[in-house]
Amino acid sequence: MEKKAKISNVGFRLICSVMLIVLPLLIMLFMLVRQEVLDLSREKLAIQSQSGAEAVGVWAEEILDELDIYKDMIEQVGMDNPEVFKLMGTSYPDHETYPYGLYWGDKEKNYFDSSGWVPEEDYVPAERNWYREGLTRDRFGFGEPYVDVMTGDICVSASARVNNSPVESVVAADVYLDYASKVVADVTDIAGGDIGYAFFVTGKSRIILADSSDSMEGQPLNSEDNILLYQNVDRLIAENQTGQQEVEGTDGHYITNIIHIDAVDWYFVTCMDSSVALRNLYRILAIMAVASLVACLLLVLVTFYSAKQIALMGIREKTDNLTGLLNRSGFHQAVKRALTAHPGQGVLIIMDLDNFKQINDKFGHPEGDVALRSFARQLDEFFNRADDITARLGGDEFAVFVGRPLAADAAKGMLHKFIDRVRETFETEYPGEGLSVSAGASFVPENPEKAMNDELYRQTDAALYEAKRNGRDGFVFANEAPEEE
After folding, report:
1. Which of 39-53, 261-275, 297-311, 436-450 has the least mean pLDDT?
2. Looking at the annotation, which residues are catalytic?
3. N or C: which end of the chain has fewer CB within 10 A?
């Protein structure tokens, strides 16, 4: 028990020491990993946002460049030439993005539509937004979005002024935003659900053009019906704050990335929930916790194994290999500790097997070893209290130190009982061989200096030989028990 307690104590102290070092390192590692995860999430958000913004920017520029080519050809033919309307008619229905082709109108209420649509008689082109917006620019540009009453889809009119027309006129095309919606879907899908919100919004009116939620398209970003996140994003755009920002939402904080698309004066906005961004961190933290637990368990096992091996090495140095009892050196050290802890208390007994040489000569040394182990077992079983110390000093010589106070009669009765038990056991195991035990004993003197010197062993050994001279199978005390106070 004492050995196990020492091993456990050593292991516990080592584990505590290691944990005092490891725990701050784990906390520091957690903070570093947290920051790294956030940085990687921000970088991922920025890359996905930039990719989406660039894709729509290129798409818009290609459409406007294509419409500008039509405009240049229209101006070359001239609006006073009827062939110009055949030219515009070639724009329908070959273009996926503006499937209804070009349309044209002037301030005198003249109107032409490539798709063949004929407006009502009260239709006045000059009163339409596409017309008013087109008058302000020489090259095609996008106007404000609206919902097409025929298709229910959101679209924008791209328009420009016709410069060489006899009267003021504008050419335009309705551009549908399916591609922008596809880009939004791609960004949210590629991100694997990390990007919770993505949408395009106009810079001037801040109407949502395409959104990860279809129900939001066509609505003003700052609508009172919109969630807090959208309202805060609207404020940032109004203040011309682009790039990444921390934005509060109804259900938490978001890392928001805002990119301005110069070609069309649109903004592409992506939002990532901070808790989602840290989701991977919690996975890493769980792995770290499991790894730390495994490491600690391994540390415990290695510590206890090492401590056990160290303890066993010490024990082996003090233990008799044949019987497992203490050897001479181990016995002397143990007795010394006992006398230091309880001076003037105890009985030293040295024993020797009678007729043991006869067992070796008759049955051989292996059987002699069996007899020695049998006696050691009897010795250890009989003197089995916490303060009893048993040992094999060498050959067939054994020793016991009873570290508790004993009166003379109790000590003598104890030895009588033990010697009788040994005789009976050996008579059963080796009948007729006369195998027994003789013992010499000494009460520990009250003087600590006398108790701890070699005189105690010498007088006890002398008592043993006196017991053998007296006929063996008995014991002799070298001194009297100390008087009780």
Report:
1. 297-311
2. 396
3. C
386 half-sphere exposure, CB direction, 13 A CA radius: 3
pTM for the whole structure: 0.59
CA 321 vs. chain centroid, Å, equals 48
Name the pLDDT band for 456 (thresholds 50, 70, 90): confident
pLDDT digits (tens, 9 = 90+) for 344-370: 889 999 999 999 999 999 999 999 999
Cβ(433)–Cβ(422) below 8 Å: no
| Cβ-count burial 294-331 (b if 16+ within 10 Å, e if not) | eeeeebeeebbeebbeeeeeeeeebbbeebebbbeebb
Q: With a cut of 80, say whether residue 311 has pLDDT above it.
A: no
Over the chain, what is the mean pLDDT? 87
Residue 7 in this model has a pLDDT that exceeds 60: no
**Inter-CA distances, 220 with 105, 150, 230, 425, Å:** 29, 21, 10, 104
| Position 53 pLDDT exceeds 90 | yes
Per-residue pLDDT reduced to its tens digit, 227-279 = 899 999 999 999 999 999 999 998 889 999 999 999 899 999 999 988 876 76
pLDDT of residue 485: 46
The span from the CA of 47 to the CA of 86, in Å, is 45
In the numeric block, which tokens belong to residue 270? 């992506």
The length of the chain in residues reads 485
Angle at 131 between CA 126 and CA 133, to 5 degrees: 130
Asked if residues 377 and 430 have their Cβ atoms less than 8 Å apart, the reply is no
pLDDT tens per residue, range 89-115 = 999 988 999 999 999 999 999 999 999
